[in-house]
Amino acid sequence: MSFLSLAPDSMFPGEHVVLHKNANAVIDVKESGLTQFAFDDLMWLIGMSGKEAIGGRCFLTNYRLVFTAHAANRLRGSFSVFLPSVVGVRNSSFAVTRKVTVTTGLQELTMVLWGVPRFIDTVRALSAGLGPDHVAHLVSLVLREPWKAGDGLKVAARLERINAALSLTRGTAEADLERLACMVANLIDGTFRRTDAAGVLGIVDLLHSARRAGDDWRAGMC
Question: Which ranges of the chain does DSSP label H, i.e. alpha helix?
């Protein structure tokens, strides 16, 4: 995945870039989010000391927010935050520093960038346009090519493990998205960088959001 642009082979079918900006990113894993999933073996993530700003570029597409770190960082790589997973986006600017904070069920991503109001409005508009059918379609795209969600999923051994997890849902009428989310989350181990973990948790967030969207849709039909 290029720093300056998203390569066509890193994008999902039907995906296109809406905005792109230089940005510094700070990733924070939410303890409350991990606790609600009872991922006991993920609790080491909470112990990641301090917060480190990662310089790079932010791409906002019709499906997700993609952050790609530049080569000068100690922490490198890329990760995705899928729009159906976003539960909040706010202006967190302080003094002259322009910042936006994007919150999901598991993570909080703060980015230093220019044009915060437009960015927020665009995220909200794109997210609002994704109904249950769109979310289900996006899940199917991600499950077919999960490595596009972040560099942490490109390592062969991890791909083998994630493919084994995803294969359990193939051939079934309806995937158990909550169980699958747990299985994907448990792919994270102590060798993962923070950006790697963010990429995996991005998929977990999406799966949980898809299950919730399906429940809301079924409740509305009752």
Answer: 31-37, 116-128, 132-144, 156-167, 177-185, 194-221
